[in-house]
Amino acid sequence: MLAIPDRWDPDVPVAKELLSKEFGVLLPVHRIDKDTTGVLVYARSERAHRDLNERFATRQVDKIYLAIVHGEPEQEVWEIDLPLRADGERDHRTIIDLSKGKAAKTRFEVVERFRGFALVRALPETGRTHQIRVHLAASGLKIVADPLYGDGAPLMLSVLKRRWKGDVYEEQPLIARTALHAVEISFQHPTNGAALKIEAPFPRDFRAALNQLRKLRAR
Fold first, then answer.
1. Which residues contact 88 (CB under 8 A, 6 or more apart)?
2. Are 142 and 162 in contact (CB under 8 A)?
């Protein structure tokens, strides 16, 4: 589901429009790609919108994402500091552009390692379009089922289990969309200044993929 309307597919359901029926006017502050999951943030007044946008722009907001990636990271912690240019090619992908790109920096930490996969925590300092996906790909670690920066192939149990004996024609994927989840965002409330932390639990497909990957690690 889209966080806000886009110009490519006007018929796709939009979270902002659905939520506006209950909450009234909503102004987007933090949004995610339609094939990812996690925390969305909308402001409910112009004042709150200005305040929160300023906090995001001046890096007064802490964002935590988790991604399931193909490959095994060489390091436990690393940073990618490569400028990005959105919509830089025909497929509307964000590209690394050293001359015309906007500054973008992401810190990564390995949370868990599996056989041929890893769960990685991403801590973006900036908020460029597709930043985490591009910076992970630049690290040689493409997100599972990412159709733009990876192979787009869903994660199947038959691929993970060498002796799997199910019916491949009826098998359902563990996760069939970009395995990226915005798990937590923290900032000061724009009205009363209180510390605010918003968390989103793993959705079912993300949780199912991790459960199967952990069984591989245990062996």
1. 94, 95, 97
2. no
Query: What domains are there in the chain, each with its CATH number?
Result: 60-218 (3.30.2350.10)
Q: How far is CA 94 from the centre of its chain?
A: 14
Active-site position among 6, 33, 81, 87:
33
Determine contact, residues 66/118, Cβ cutoff 8 Å: no
For residue 2, the cross-strand partners are 14
Write the pLDDT tens digit of every residue in 131-176: 999 999 999 999 999 999 999 999 998 888 877 766 666 889 999 9
- For residue 40, what are the CA distances in angstroms to 79, 95, 146, 171? 25, 24, 20, 32
> Would you say 181 and 67 are in contact if contact means Cβ atoms under 8 Å apart?
yes
Q: Residue 204 belongs to what H/E stretch?
A: helix 204-218
State the CB neighbour count (10 A cutoff) for residue 57.
Answer: 11
97 is catalytic: no
Q: How far apart are CA 38 and CA 205, in angstroms?
A: 13
Contact (Cβ atoms closer than 8 angstroms) between residue 203 and residue 68: no
**What is the model's pTM?**
0.91
Helix, strand, coil percentages (3-state) for the chain, rounded to 5, are 20, 30, 50
